[in-house]
User: Which sequence fits this backbone?
């Protein structure tokens, strides 16, 4: 219902202005990609890929964006988005109003991009980067890549224009379903009171960036259907062996995610100097005082530009630092401790690393052909060593 209200409001704003038809600007982006993988076990970085088959659906997408200038600094934007993995069902991914306060500040309100990490806002725009897909150790295609809320974008010129500082302050909410590879499916989840801050300092050939966002997790159903269902046999055995009700409550509350704080942060840099490209980003995220061990991811990419070509090699890794203390600090029963430790280990099991090479060819002012090969190793025994190959075209229009 909330999505429909934002969509209706933005369309009404676009169409009801007396001169709207003359002031609406359209643009968009798309990717058509053939992908092949030798594993498809439903875990990053293999999600949406079919083992041993070439698929054009998993990584193909299109988006059309309309922006209407309503006058006196006010505008309305809507982005319609469709992915092959969802049978190209169209959704209103963005739908918001904008107001240009002055030359420095602009405010947006509605359904917005949630800037989780540095490139999250434009993660789907393949033409904007030199990978076939951004390294999945960092950019895991999070379901909460949008939110309903408000953001303030600001740009400051420093040192007589030698440096530029871009900031983005956001507040909002998100509710939906989150895919967890450890349980092999989606679970209902919501983020309340999202607060985020992104900073980018740049000059002619370099940039450094950092950001953080926190939210209160609403995960009552996750706690019931995943956490409690998984550990119930251990609880029954512990009670039979004399565990107290208070110890069991501490155990359940410690492992649960409901009304706990989620914290995400990132930092990195980018260099584009004499046709040499160097990029790196590190991220860390998790749910405090719960069974969710801290997730850490990073990538480093080195590229070289020659004429219309860019060749990029990169390494990436995603790990989870198993920590029993946060979720089990108040538990005394040895049986509950052993049960909780096993659950935390299973939830934090999926880890992977990879190296890859990508060739980009800008054969058209608005289109790039890319081909890549990635080889990696996954800690899940049913995945193990894996490889991904793809070729496709990214466009903007």
Assistant:
């Amino acid at each position: 219902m909330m999505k429909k209200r934002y969509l209706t409001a933005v369309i009404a704003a676009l169409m009801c202005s007396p001169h709207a038809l003359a002031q609406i600007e359209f643009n968009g982006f798309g990717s058509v990609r053939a992908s092949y993988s030798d594993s498809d076990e439903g875990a990053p970085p293999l999600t949406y890929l079919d083992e041993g088959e070439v698929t054009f659906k998993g990584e193909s997408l299109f988006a059309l964006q309309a922006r209407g200038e309503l006058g006196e600094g006010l505008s309305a934007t809507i982005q319609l988005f469709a992915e092959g993995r969802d049978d190209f069902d169209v959704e209103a991914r963005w739908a918001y109003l904008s107001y240009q306060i002055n030359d420095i500040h602009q405010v947006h309100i509605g359904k917005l991009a949630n800037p989780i990490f540095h490139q999250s806002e434009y993660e789907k725009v393949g033409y904007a980067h030199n990978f076939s897909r951004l390294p999945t150790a960092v950019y895991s295609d999070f379901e909460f890549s949008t939110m309903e809320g408000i953001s303030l974008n600001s740009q400051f010129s420093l040192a007589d224009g030698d440096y530029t500082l871009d900031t983005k302050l956001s507040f909002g909410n998100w509710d939906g379903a989150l895919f967890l590879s450890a349980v092999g499916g989606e679970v209902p989840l919501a983020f309340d009171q999202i607060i985020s801050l992104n900073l980018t300092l740049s000059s002619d050939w370099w940039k450094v960036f950092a950001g953080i966002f926190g939210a209160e997790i609403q995960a009552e159903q996750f706690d019931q259907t995943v956490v409690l269902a998984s550990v119930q046999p251990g609880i029954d055995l512990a009670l039979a062996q004399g565990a107290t009700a208070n110890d069991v409550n501490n155990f359940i509350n410690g492992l649960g995610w409901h009304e706990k704080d989620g914290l995400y942060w990132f930092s990195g840099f980018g260099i584009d100097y004499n046709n040499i490209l160097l990029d790196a980003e590190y991220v860390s995220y998790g749910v405090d005082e719960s069974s969710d061990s801290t997730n850490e991811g990073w990538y480093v990419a080195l590229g070289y530009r020659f004429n219309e070509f860019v060749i990029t090699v990169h390494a990436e890794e995603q790990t989870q630092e198993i920590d029993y203390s946060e979720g089990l600090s108040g538990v005394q029963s040895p049986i509950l401790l052993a049960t909780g430790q096993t659950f935390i280990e299973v939830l934090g099991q999926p880890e992977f690393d990879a190296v890859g090479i990508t060739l980009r060819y800008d054969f058209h002012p608005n289109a790039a052909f890319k081909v890549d090969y990635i080889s990696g190793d996954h800690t899940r025994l049913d995945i193990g060593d894996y490889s991904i190959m793809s070729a496709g075209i990214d466009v903007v229009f």
User: Anything to note?
Assistant: Residues 276 and 304 are 5 Å apart (CA to CA). Helices lie at 2-16, 20-23, 220-240, 245-255, 325-328, 334-347.
